[in-house]
Design brief:
- The chain is α+β, with helices and mostly antiparallel strands and 335 residues long.
- It has helices at 2-17, 22-33, 38-45, 54-79, 104-118, 132-135, 171-180, 221-236, 285-290, 307-315, 328-331, and strands spanning 122-124, 129-130, 165-166, 185-194, 206-216, 241-249, 252-266, 269-283, 299-306.
- The chain has 2 domains: 2-80; 104-334, Bira Bifunctional Protein, Domain 2 (BirA Bifunctional Protein, domain 2, 2-Layer Sandwich).
- Helix content is 38%, strand content 22%.
- The strands form 2 sheets. Strands 1-4-5-9-8-7-6 form a 7-stranded mixed β-sheet, sandwiched between helices.
- A hairpin with a 2-residue loop joins strand 6 (241-249) and strand 7.
- It binds adenosine-5'-[phenylalaninyl-phosphate].
Length: 335
Amino acid sequence: MLADLDAMELEALAELAVVSDDAGLEAFRVRWLGSNGRLREVMTGLKGVSKEEKPAVGKRLNEVKASIEGAFAVKREATTTMPKGPLVDVTEPGFPVGEGARHVLTQTIDEIVDVLGRMGFSVADGPELEDEWHNFNALNIPESHPARGPADNFFLGGQVAGKLLLRTQTSTVQIRAMESMKPPLKICAIGRVYRPDAHDATHYSMFHQVEGLFIDRKVSMVDLKTTLVQFAKAFFGPEAEIRLRPSFFPFTEPSAELDMKMKIMKNGKPEWKWIELGGCGMVDPNVFKAVGIDPEEWTGFAFGLGIERVAMRKYGIGDIRLLFENDARFLRQFA
Ligand code: FA5
């Protein structure tokens, strides 16, 4: 039996030596290593070996098996044109790949920029970490104004006077645009703003605003309202209605609150309601003076809308917090 094993090893190795392609390798594997192959046959024959001979024959059989398998592996490595490593069954269903999609806020921002771009607004930018000049002084918000207190702002390092803060409004970009560009100008700015507001269904401590600024000669409130009506109809559809309510902002005079009439589903029934989207008005002469623009020659309007509110209205989202929880089940609805 031991001599047979020696002969079998030599025979297998000699046969393997002349194999030169994938088909030959496979034929060798089936003949020698397969479930009905020669090695299996010999293993089955082990039952007939006497008790005394069994340990030696068993040991030798394992050696021959290892020798043939080792030689086969080396040969396959050198010969095969198939990909190395574990074989992949391409018919297996595999794992589904989670497909990414743009966040509903990103979609809203892109749509807003698209509409304003078509209306002639170019995009301007400014930092989220601002100084008090751009967030307050230049916007006609004096030192004594209650909106400058630590309870209404995120000041850097908790210090208040003459320090940096996270901007509370994108109106800061109005100032930056007017400082770096000469009128006439027509810009919009989109970005994050921060306020220490308590979180509820319509308030968050970080949210987004879109700012619009148009400066030219003889700009009037009519231009502002026409622009907002055009924007609303282009963004929300022809049925969109807006109204301006008198209000106050230090950097516009006169100032107004922009409301939009929207269909809200209540108890499964559509209901039309006026919803506040933002503020607007004619640029205050003090703002022009702060940035060195002559208010006798130039006039302008500005508006600032909360983008979360816009998205909530457009997509029927009832709670602002859903926008920031990153629950894929919620986000997938807008993909
Ligand atoms: C302003 O921020 C002014 N800068 C707007 C403006 C621009 C007026 C240009 C005149 C000229 P207000 O604080 O009202 O205004 O905020 C504007 C909008 O931001 C609100 O109408 C609302 O839609 C949104 N908003 C305000 N606070 C929050 C908050 N905590 N969470 C989500 N959205 C908010």
